[in-house]
Amino acid sequence: MNFSSDNWAGATASVMEALNRHSTGLASAYGADPLTADVTRTFSAIFERDVSVYFVATGTAANALALSAFARPGGAVFCHSDSHIQVDECGCPEFLTGGEKLVPINGADGKITADALRNAMKAFPEGVVHHGQVASVSITQSTECGTVYTLDEIRAIKAAADERGIPLHMDGARFASALVSLGVTPAEMTWMAGVDVLSFGATKNGCWCAEAVVFFNPEQAKGFEYFRKRAGHLFSKSRFVAAQFEGYFADDSWLGSAAHANEMAQRLAEGIRRTGGRTAWPVEANEVFPILPQEKVSRLREAGAMFYEWPADGLPEGSRPSGEEVCLRLVANFATTPEDVDCFLELL
Amino acid sequence: MNFSSDNWAGATASVMEALNRHSTGLASAYGADPLTADVTRTFSAIFERDVSVYFVATGTAANALALSAFARPGGAVFCHSDSHIQVDECGCPEFLTGGEKLVPINGADGKITADALRNAMKAFPEGVVHHGQVASVSITQSTECGTVYTLDEIRAIKAAADERGIPLHMDGARFASALVSLGVTPAEMTWMAGVDVLSFGATKNGCWCAEAVVFFNPEQAKGFEYFRKRAGHLFSKSRFVAAQFEGYFADDSWLGSAAHANEMAQRLAEGIRRTGGRTAWPVEANEVFPILPQEKVSRLREAGAMFYEWPADGLPEGSRPSGEEVCLRLVANFATTPEDVDCFLELL
Amino acid sequence: MNFSSDNWAGATASVMEALNRHSTGLASAYGADPLTADVTRTFSAIFERDVSVYFVATGTAANALALSAFARPGGAVFCHSDSHIQVDECGCPEFLTGGEKLVPINGADGKITADALRNAMKAFPEGVVHHGQVASVSITQSTECGTVYTLDEIRAIKAAADERGIPLHMDGARFASALVSLGVTPAEMTWMAGVDVLSFGATKNGCWCAEAVVFFNPEQAKGFEYFRKRAGHLFSKSRFVAAQFEGYFADDSWLGSAAHANEMAQRLAEGIRRTGGRTAWPVEANEVFPILPQEKVSRLREAGAMFYEWPADGLPEGSRPSGEEVCLRLVANFATTPEDVDCFLELL
Amino acid sequence: MNFSSDNWAGATASVMEALNRHSTGLASAYGADPLTADVTRTFSAIFERDVSVYFVATGTAANALALSAFARPGGAVFCHSDSHIQVDECGCPEFLTGGEKLVPINGADGKITADALRNAMKAFPEGVVHHGQVASVSITQSTECGTVYTLDEIRAIKAAADERGIPLHMDGARFASALVSLGVTPAEMTWMAGVDVLSFGATKNGCWCAEAVVFFNPEQAKGFEYFRKRAGHLFSKSRFVAAQFEGYFADDSWLGSAAHANEMAQRLAEGIRRTGGRTAWPVEANEVFPILPQEKVSRLREAGAMFYEWPADGLPEGSRPSGEEVCLRLVANFATTPEDVDCFLELL
Q: Is the model's pLDDT at D1 over the cut of 90?
């Protein structure tokens, strides 16, 4: 009954097999090995387009480095108030972009809207040097609230971004869970909807450490290897990341893992609803945010259930937890079992 | 016959076993897991002192982040002209320290001397704001020339650093090879000789990706977790690095691997000498730098031997390669076999 | 009838006299001249304490450099949502602090409160590396809304800052106008109330270009000359800034200038009230923010009056400009004449 | 007899007149005033081309900001080992460029040669991420050794820079002295010879504080106002810098000042030669570097002469000061009188 986070999980069997398979022998360092080339081709196949792929150490690095490729002096990065880059990255985006300002935008269900973006960009009128300049916009898919942007929502945000000529970044730390939730293709959810650069996260969904920055336009990727190396994010034995991706993509196991985690989340959500509980946000990916009476939460903890409390201040009045309630975050992962879920629900 | 680099090798059996052993189950993320705690205790045991250990993604990051903890505005970092931080890190030290200046110091056999350091520091007199200020000194053990600082040499450099109140950093990308070469303890080669902070590299000697910044004084480590996170170097599934270290240290396998690589280097060196060849620098660790006639090198290449050419401009006149000669770098690693070596020597 | 900004004004006679007086002869460069020493002593006399004074080129630089002296990795700087550092400095604070995050706090009348600060700091709990860490708090005196913090308000903010161990910075671009408004001493409004470092602005109140960073605690000033020089803000002919300060302080002319500007603002405010108009915020310094019917504003413009429109979104509902109204900013300066004011009021 | 530095001088009469003339009245802030526009037109006239002109606070800022406009991750800036940006700017270029590496190049008479540049760039081969990438080259005119690049030398450096696609920056802290020394036009010495961006210094030659970054290609200037503002270098009362330039350029007074200073330097040099003395480098601008017996120097000091000692380690063996000798720097400025010089020579 451990729903603490998907990054508490280990590696899937398929990832471990690939790691073992490639653990011996000599191969070129720094990404010049054949396996890295292979995996890059797989990425291109998956995205139905020649993409530029750069492995980095963490999701935080992927986000910050992706944004740094589009940084401008006095630049503003627009993002949701609850986004990982704004709240959970210890200023890494600010640091790696050379001091850009993150401009938090409020929005229901962890999402920003095209109009809210337009409004936020107004504070940075073209050519007024004092206020700085618009630089990029970043969305998280699936979001920190366990919701998922629809393709239309992404397209609308892209349209707003285009009005000011800034690129659209997608933080895909939970890319796979959004993908299977929408039932669309990777291409549809990214470049076809206007995404310029993607943080492709595989760690939460079954790798040890496999994160990549993916550019859909080779022009925009130009020189990115220097950004990565300058931040200390070029692995020497790059093939060990490639190996993980090989195992991850093999037989679509990544989609299976994500589908399973989403399913477990639905099972949790339904169970909670059945007991008369409510969730802070719609359950669309692998995270569930129940609002529960404080005493129930204590009982769950005593029985050994593990999870984090979650701030729910962003909810509209009336939906927020009352004085006796608390909002939890329950995260399902590839290894969560129906038994874990049922055991938790029983306690409830 | 692949002597390209020790980072072309894969992982040792002992490292892979540990990775497999810890691949399943849930564990706290971001280094709060029991395995990371265990491994940190092992580090302290190895160094005979309570040390602060921070895993990071790469050796470049370890170096740059270690230096960033001691950065000052207008700061100067003293290092050898051929050092990795000066030549091979794409400005990562400059970037992560907020723009410090690396001051290259020439020196025989890839080493700086205490007096050369003293002399270089004179350009930064106390209190003269224009020239900036001394910030830190970095040495590489074993060096980029395959040589090893003696304990006396390290102590002398520390004494010079102390005269200006700056800390001593050791780039230990090949820490183990130096250790077994000198036949001293990790404590003797580090804090006992005056090292303040160490980049402890395990990747080249048999891990996939296991690098750590080690502080010997908890005061100096204060707040370092923020430097690491801000650069995107805090792994979420930190235990996968810890697992590698567990396997690395198990049964002193790390020392065995290093000893083997050094032995293979000696076998190479002796063979080269036997054929009347010479090396650019003494062979004291796992690297050999023969100076060979161009045509021999071509023959080796044709026969399938792999290696890099290496600049030897730093050699004193008379020792430098002549017009028909070229300097090679041959790197042995834990998996290099005597057969590899003998086959190479035979071709020679 | 030009109320555009106090930085549209030139220099006072007293400042020009001093500049002329010191325009010839040779003097040590980079602040080692006797005049700079003299003026520093004057600062200490004015603040009734030995202060460390650093001239810089602009108010923006003064703010950003002052904050940089207290920067931490992943650091958060707390400030009002409308503050100059947040809105008008093109990311200079973010850049010169190495990527700190500015955390905007809403608050009535352009001021933050101690409790709002406490609340904002909660998002940065001690020791949680993901969220970063508290670094400093900055207030503006007088504020961007033409209001003035009382000594009690400053003391309360300092108390909240002390609870988390962060320093208090005061942006004193309009320091003199606040000082004469409160009728207190420079010491009372700064270090006695808890201010650690002050951006002392003299440009808006009658100098050409005279801004200084003032530390009240020599320990905190240590090494600051390196921060300044590293940002290109150490003037070679430093005495020309010193000369301006000499003229500025002579015969308390700075207080006279500020008192005059404040008086003109009051004259404006009273006139507006007399015509039935209202102001967005209380008029406590040299700025007046009338909310006027659009058509009146057009008429003023046609008659040659000059001023900027000002966003008043921060006002509580009910007080905000209606659809037909607009908020203006009128800034009085040392050279504003009663005739200017009366002429403007007549048009109204 | 004060030859300490040209930045020990005050302002010329013509500069002071202009400052006084423009000291009153209201004018747009931040460079939108008519005087700044006027002066910009004068710059264009002087350079016979539409140039983009940006005032900044110091020569250090001008250099570092100019270079920052061309910065790349892992970028290398090539410059002379004795150049101001390398030795005297406290890491400002490294800081404002986001951590570029300055690559010092030795060269006779304070100059780099095209071939030395070519050779230095070899360490940064195209596409090898580890070593970083070439970013820009900077020359100083007149140099730190009081010498002047010929037009041919500049053109040759530009040709080498073009081979790798990097721009040529000129540090013109002593631009005027080089100009009158060569007897060429500003256009000839800059864009016609291949200079892309110029730090135009007027402070040393008679202003209080008037430095400008001048771009010769509007494309390259794009967005530069954000670099300047982000570093805190946009003056609010910009017209006070413009006024200085107006006075500086009026009636070619800047050329007169520079010619006078150069003449005084020649008078010094000839006098020294007459007494059998020698200079470290040819005297081509307003600086003289005599190598004198230690005891003579002591006598000069006792008699009240003021100057700095200067390192002359860069000289070829045989030319370097002997044990009993010392190298001095004597700087003439617009206000140096023949009597100053003769008095000094008499003492000699």
A: no
Q: What residue numbers bound the domain in which C48 lies? A: 13-252
Size of interface A-C (CB pairs under 8 A): 62
Cross-chain residue pair B23–A7, CB shorter than 8 Å: no
A touches which chains (3+ CB pairs under 8 A)? B, C, D
Q: Which residue of C has its CA nearest to D307?
A: C28
Same domain, A331 and A211: no
Contacts of D72 in chain A (CB under 8 A): 223, 226
**Three-state SS for C120?**
helix
Domain co-membership, D84 together with D194: yes
pLDDT over 90 at B125, yes or no: yes
C-beta separation of B40 from B53 below 8 A:
yes
Number of cross-chain residue pairs from A and B with Cβ atoms under 8 Å apart = 164
Q: Which helix (H) or strand (E) holds B75?
A: strand B75-80
* Chain B nearest-CA residue for D88: B130
**C275 is a domain residue:** yes
Rounded to 5°, the CA angle D250-D252-D257 comes to: 110
pLDDT per residue rounded down to tens, chain C (348 residues): 899 999 999 999 999 999 999 999 999 999 999 999 999 999 999 999 999 999 999 999 999 999 999 999 999 999 999 999 999 999 999 999 999 999 999 999 999 999 999 999 999 999 999 999 999 999 999 999 999 999 999 999 999 999 999 999 999 999 999 999 999 999 999 999 999 999 999 999 999 999 999 999 999 999 999 999 999 999 999 999 999 999 999 999 999 999 999 999 999 999 999 988 899 999 999 999 999 999 999 999 999 999 999 999 889 988 999 989 999 999 999 999 999 999 999 998
Q: Is the dihedral of CA A296, A302, A307, A310 positive or negative?
A: positive
Helix (H, G, I), strand (E, B) or coil at B143: coil
- Give the single-character DSSP code of B2: B
Count of CB atoms within 10 A of residue C3's CB? 27
Dist. CA A277–CA A265, nearest whole Å: 15
**Which residues on D lie below 8 Å from C30 (Cβ)?**
7
Point out the domain boundary residue: B224, B252, B280: B252
Residues C179 and C114 in one domain: yes
Q: How far is D136 from chain A (nearest CA, A)?
A: 16
Same structural domain, A193 and A57: yes
Q: Is the pLDDT of residue B182 over 90?
A: yes
Judging contacts by C-beta atoms under 8 Å, the chain B residues touching residue D7 are none
A90 and D CB contact within 8 Å: no
Which CATH number is C232's domain given?
3.40.640.10
The 10s digit of each residue's pLDDT in D55-107 is 999 999 999 999 999 999 999 999 999 999 999 999 999 999 999 999 999 99
Within a domain: residue A127?
A: yes
Long-range contacts of A221-224 (CB under 8 A, 24+ apart): A221/A52, A221/A54, A221/A69, A223/A69, A223/D72, A223/D73, A223/D133, A224/A52, A224/A54, A224/A65, A224/A69
- Measured from the Cβ of residue C266, the count of other Cβ atoms closer than 10 Å reads 18
Of B74, B130, B225, the CB nearest to C129: B225
DSSP annotation of B232 reads T
Comparing CA positions, the residue from A148, A149, A134 lying closest to residue A67 is A134
Assess if residue D7 is contained within a domain. Answer: no
Chain A residue with Cα closest to D96? A98
Nearest to A226 among D74, D225, D234 (CB): D74
* All chains having 3 or more CB pairs closer than 8 angstroms to chain C: A, B, D
Q: What is the CATH number of the domain that holds B273?
A: 3.90.1150.10
Asked if D85 has any chain C CB less than 8 Å from its own CB, the reply is: no
Domain count for chain B: 2
Same domain for D191 and D113 = yes
Residue D5 lies in a domain: no
Task: Check whether residue C204 and residue C337 sit in a common domain.
Answer: no
